[in-house]
Amino acid sequence: MIIRSFRQVAARSSHNRFSLRRPLHESTGLRNSPEMNESPRINQVGIQYLSNQLHKKVFPTTEVDDYVKPKHPELLEMAKDHLQANDLLGKKTQITDPININHFPDLVGKTLDEHFYKLGQNSSEPYLSMARNFLSPKSSIPPIPSQDEWIMQPGWTRYTQNEEPEQVPYPLEDELVFDVEVLYKVKKFPIIATCASSKAWYGWVSPVLLEANDRWKKTIDYNHLIPMNCAKQPKLIVGYNISYDRARILEEYNIKRSKAFFLDAMAMHVAISGICSRQRPKWQKFNKAQAKAAEAEAEAEAEQEREEEEQEDDDYDPAISIQEDPWLLTGAPNSLANVAKFHCGVEMNKSDREFFASEDPRVIVKNFNLLMNYCAHDVDATFKVSKKLLPDFFAKVPHPVSFAALKHLGSLILPTSTKWKRYIESAEACYDANRAEVNDTLKKLAFDLIQFIEKKDPKLRPEYESDPWLSQLNWDLKKGRFKKDGTPYKRNAFLTGYPEWYRDLWGSISPAGTQMNLTLKTRITPLLLKLKWENYPLFWTDTEGWCFKVPFDEQVLADLFTKNYTRAELTPEEADEVHDKLYEDGKSYVLFKVPHPDGPNKRCTSVLSKNYMRYFDDGTLTSEYDYAKKILKLNNEASYWMGNRNRIMDQFVVYNKEGKNKFFDTKKEGQEHKDMGIIIPNLASMGTITRRATENTWLTASNAKRNRIGSELKALIEAPEGYCFIGADVDSEELWIASLVGDSMLGIHGGSALGWMTLEGEKSQGTDLHSKTASILGISRNDAKVFNYGRIYGAGITFATRLLKQFNGNLSDTKADEIAQKLYASTKGMTQNPRSLGSKKIYYGGSESIMFNALEAIAQQPEPKTPVLGASITDALNAKNLKKNTYMTSRVNWTIQSSGVDYLHLLIVSMEYLIEKYGVDARLAITVHDELRYLVKEEDKYMAALLLQISNLWTRAMFCEQLGIKEVPQSCAFFSEVDIDHVLRKEVGMDCVTPSHPDPIPHGESLNINQLLEKTGNGEILNCNPKLMTLRTRKYEPRVPVIQTLRSGWTEQARIQLVKLQTSINKEEWIKNLRELNRIIRTYVTDEQKEILTKWHDDRVKENSRHVVYKRDRKKIKSKKEENKAVEDYDLEVKPLEQNSGGKGEKTGSRAKRSKKEVIEKQVELMQEESTMNENTIVGVKDGRSAHALKKGVIDKPTQPSLLSVVETNDESKSQSQEKSSQDSVQATEAATTAVNPPMPSPSFSNVDIHRKPPLQQPLEAPSSTTTPHHYTRSRAFSSKMGFARKVSYHTSTSHLYQAYLKWHRREGMSDVSNCGGTRSNQLMVDSDRKCYCCDRFETRYRSRRRQC
């Protein structure tokens, strides 16, 4: 690898093509490569692109040197200025050998979009057709058999109408809805199951139920799985949370992937109508209020007294909530009962499921028919829900890749071995020993304090009154009851004669007195350990939690306030209660709060949690006893197992057992893997609104740590002998996606500061994102990662301030807020809300401003979609369903994370295609958000690793293509490393040594792209006569990239200027760029708008009094000599400046000091002049000539017909049509306005079309004879800013329309029409309005002279 700075390489280059300063490496792969002398392709900001060979393979319709000639040079200059402002331009970048791969596979199509469309279609079939047929609107399943019809016989029984039930080995049809029930407290194996097809119902019964009735049977074998005949026969199996049911299917426990497609109705609901975590509490409150309202309506006559709490709930009005939050009617939580009610109006009774909580299978036998009926109703509800959701799902998630990926996410497998049992035993033993040591130490402390009672020796009585910790305990002794003769009653209170604090330790676990409940979580434990904060004793208060007790001293208090400690504020009642303890021996004390990780407003309730471990290390938290720190470390050691123990022990592990399952196709292989086990993870393929997969154990498992019991969990997943795991982590996946969105606005990789730092930033140079943030905040680089990802996901300054306080407790709130403000000013940037852009918030001046503007633009769309695969946001977060609460953070987070899901889906589908094409024995084992692992045959490991790199390159290229940059940076084209390992772990070099696993695990193999190419002969391994794939798909139809639809409605000039606006580095530059943007908005008309204008004109060409005026740049006329020149275009609706009053001209508009009478007289005069003008007017657009110029002979006669023309009329035709025109003018113009200017949002950066070419700047011909070439003889108040003129940036004036306008004002009694005076040309401001009149659909705006930016 050669590392060179961009300046070094550029210094030796010529003609924008760069060459290396010294020969390339003589590597094995490159030595024989014909491209060994190839120069790296480096863009104008120092980012290296793919080699010539790979570029041609990935973008076959482009040229390798297209990047040298940017389409918009002005955007490139903006990018350079932006990087320079962030001190990044010219910084060192990595220039490496161009990577070439021999026999690189071609795309299936001309573009990557076509390529992935065909791969997705091919992968989806035949399941896509099966789903559409089985769940079509006209489809149905037979009625549920009556409750008495169910037969308790082992295996499958088929139930059809008008026929006797028959026993079958498996369901005969290929499309099924399926549900399983389990005695989950006993075993994880199935007990009963039902399924339905379009022809019949099926019931499955475990032999367990028959064995349970046999009273002579001492042991029951629960090991029975459900056959479905899907090993080689394609099956569509629909269910709700289907992965739970899949884990009970026999054919799924095989090293080869079955032919079943598991379609999860819950996943479809989440993607369509799921709600985010922030919405869930409001939905629950709304649902509760609805239920109460329904109950009150049903029992309207019954009157009940309600408690205060219930009365408060009654104040909640669901109707008001719906008005404020319409999303409440468009989303629901994920349970089947909620979803069936929400989508289908089906009320489900789930009370019978309590039978499955029994530990006795005879309960199931006794209620067999009832429970089979219950299971069947779940199947029926699932079918109705799926039938309703499927078309909505395809509308929300239309790309075939998104559907095809669900097949693989529903077929995951985790192989393990009998080591699993030993792991559980070892972890439990370590945990028990750990707990025993901690508990014994604490119990000894408690026993020592009551020895004076046990031994009845007053000398052993502790001096608790003067002890700052023990004095907080309740030392009142429980008095016994005695008879008159002084003998105690036989049944006295437990621990009579002992202190109350000690008695409480024994009474909290039932039955009382059987076990002492003293752990690190017990409230009195910090007092028994005599803990100190800042060397002052801890003190408990109910109001403020744990505090520390400080003697009153001004200097001491000043020091503590300097360290930003907060003084405790007690309630009057509690202050009275602790008064004596704060005033002892003539001394007074002050309480300060122990800081909480979430800020000073929270109270600390446990100083022995892992969050406070660092305070032990730095000496802030200490103890009177040396073993206190050891106890905390022991607790920290057990924390992982304590939190995950139940979930780990709840895993359903099926072991290889002949006669019960078939892990391998041959008996020999099965015998070779006797110790093998398989876990099927309970994964929801789309478990969150971002469509991320969820699973509560494997997707959240941490890496092995030396001081965490049981943390070696992932390493228990072992590839069977002869197989290995191949996988990789996508490097900075979501950060790269976010930066690419920003780069796409500038049209070049690395054009934005965030994009450059993501692609080329180096930790050693301090130019990567995390180092930059760390330098701003004054924290470590690792801590800075939390800030960066939180900010990109939409977290605000409050989040940053809280984190800063956590990382540096000495920071004051003011200082933390100041630092956070500085961070956000340098990253997100400053904000403005210009009215000309719809008053939407726009960031500018920061390294990430462009990216955040783009992400929020996507989130604010009426139907937000992911930029690559076009998946839509859930209805509950759709902008049209949000009013009071916008949930902007969740919506921005959705944009990033859902795009990350698109990335994973593209990677999976392309990998499937390559595995089949090259005949590799591999299957997807597990995915964890941005990482994935394949289970691969040992001999195919290097081939699979190379195919994974190719899949990643295709996926990166697809993202780049859809975002408008047909180049891929070489630094991110490939995984940094591909891991080849025999166990599941984060890194192949981890030993996985823990307290419960002291033996290290042998390391695996990790290869970067160059090392992998050496292993594979620089790609020669691909020269193996790959299978010729027959992709039978529907015809591909090119689609408009989603990112382009966000930019529609803007001209190219406006879009470029909008980007420049966002790169403004200060307020002055912002104002300058905004003014220029407003000028461009006024000046240019898009092709689309011209077409609308042309159509409108053709329909109304006979309306000869209408004049279409094209708004152009206007310049002041300084002399009459210049007035005769035809080289300038003017706004023909603005009155010319008079050459009097010292050349200042006549003031017009709202600033002119004229009486209402003068204004009306002037308007009538102007109207008369216009009527004369209309007789001889011809307006031309396309040829760029003005009538005034033609009249003077300056310009030759046009050689091409004009785009728009108005036919010249004579007096006779005018007199015949004038009466009708005057009657119909208003209605006709209103119709035209409705057509030209439909209701649309204000222009914003979110709807700019980068591919739309700017229209030619074609001037209009000026009116002849009675008017000057640069003004209309009408008030601007009427015609300058009518509704469609505001939108499409041209003017329309009609004398008849103006007459109708005046009549309408007079009829309505509007006397202030006289204010409608002319306005100076330079007063036409898009973003400032002072007054507004509306006449039907026409809007007139008065503009103030000064712009408010």
From TrEMBL:
One of its GO terms (cellular component) is gamma DNA polymerase complex. Residues 29-40, 1226-1236 have a biased composition (Polar residues). Keywords: DNA replication, DNA-binding, DNA-directed DNA polymerase, Magnesium, Mitochondrion, Nucleotidyltransferase, Transferase. Its cofactor is Mg(2+). Residues 296-317 have a biased composition (Acidic residues). Its main location: mitochondrion. Residues 710-940 form the DNA-directed DNA polymerase family A palm domain. Coiled coil: none annotated. The keyword Mitochondrion applies. PANTHER family: DNA POLYMERASE SUBUNIT GAMMA-1. Belongs to the DNA polymerase type-A family. This is DNA polymerase gamma.
